[in-house]
Design goal:
- With 283 residues, this protein is an alpha/beta fold.
- The chain has one domain: Rossmann fold (3-Layer(aba) Sandwich).
- 33% of the residues lie in helices and 24% in strands.
- It contains nine helices and eleven strands.
- The strands form two sheets. Strands 6-5-4-7-8-11-10 form a seven-stranded mixed β-sheet, sandwiched between helices.
- The radius of gyration is 18 Å and the shape is globular.
Length: 283
């Protein structure tokens, strides 16, 4: 990929996924932000990243208002995602970034003993009130769960938003029992059909970061970089597949085309993907 001449060839920003000290600047984004690629894990990250308080403020009550009109479609989505829990080694489940508790509710109905963490005070309070289950408001490490507390940890579209994905994965490894299951969903940068559809609909290529975006994607993944990040954190990846999360006719159409492309490429080429992994090592 060509890099604008004004971008430095290398930058000592450091990778917050695997710890590599020097990354390569690959793309300029609005607001003076630059995307850097890690030469070790391959993840693209935004630099500089916004402060935690700004990220938290973006997920107030107004953010979730749009979900109310999609309630039925979202319920079907969460039920589809339950298939990634089949054959789980136990029933104790933690959903990191649980929002208002939609997946917790579905997993609880399926027989799991559920807890959650959530950065948004509004969403965490809503989840606790709805379900009557423990939901920690804050980052995962701040909850201070005991080592090996859970058989399953899920992160549904969380790693692209957190300030330190490497720390989140390390903590997930610590709180999972040996052989425990990790389920991670993230947007997929390797989705040419989405980029083509976006350009056709809006007349321009999609940006990967904008400081005014409704959702702040600080990290950008493709199948190989996600697998490397999970491996670095002590997980063995079992499979990586398309994420069945598309809602709305246009997105569903692009998703179906992406699934056909995925089958031909033998790798996810949909707009989002899910990795299922097992915790490696003794407790």
């Amino acid at each position: 990929m060509s890099v604008a001449p004004c971008l430095p060839a290398l930058a000592e920003c450091g990778c917050r996924v695997c710890g590599t000290e020097v990354t390569t600047a690959v793309r300029r984004e609005p607001g003076g932000h630059v995307l850097h690629e890690c030469g070790t894990c391959g993840v693209w990250s935004v630099w500089p990243s916004p402060p935690l308080d700004r990220l938290r403020a973006g997920y107030g009550e107004s953010y979730y208002a749009a979900w109310d009109g999609e309630a039925r479609a979202r319920l079907r989505m969460w039920r589809r995602r339950l298939r990634f829990l089949r054959g789980a080694p136990g029933r104790a489940l933690l959903d990191v970034g649980c929002a208002r508790g939609d997946f917790l509710e579905v997993a609880k109905a399926a027989g799991f003993e559920v807890q959650g963490t959530e950065l948004s005070p509004h969403a965490a309070a809503r989840a606790r009130a709805r379900l009557g289950v423990p939901v920690h408001c804050g980052e995962l490490a701040e909850a201070r769960f005991g080592s090996g507390s859970f058989a399953v940890v899920t992160l549904w579209h969380v790693l692209e938003h957190v300030l330190h994905p490497g720390r989140a994965l390390a903590e997930a490894h610590r709180i999972l029992e040996p052989g425990g299951r990790l389920v991670v969903a993230v947007p997929n940068r390797a989705c040419p059909l989405f980029r083509a559809a976006y350009r056709a609909a809006r007349g321009r290529k999609p940006h990967l970061y904008h400081p005014d975006d409704r959702e702040q994607h600080l990290y950008h993944w493709e199948p190989r970089s996600l697998a490397r990040a999970l491996g670095h954190a002590g997980f063995d990846v079992v499979r990586t597949t398309p994420d069945p999360c598309a809602i709305g006719a246009a997105k569903v159409a692009v998703d179906l085309a992406g699934r056909l492309h995925s089958a031909l490429a033998r790798a996810p080429r949909t707009a989002a993907m899910v990795a299922v992994a097992h915790r490696r090592g003794a407790s």
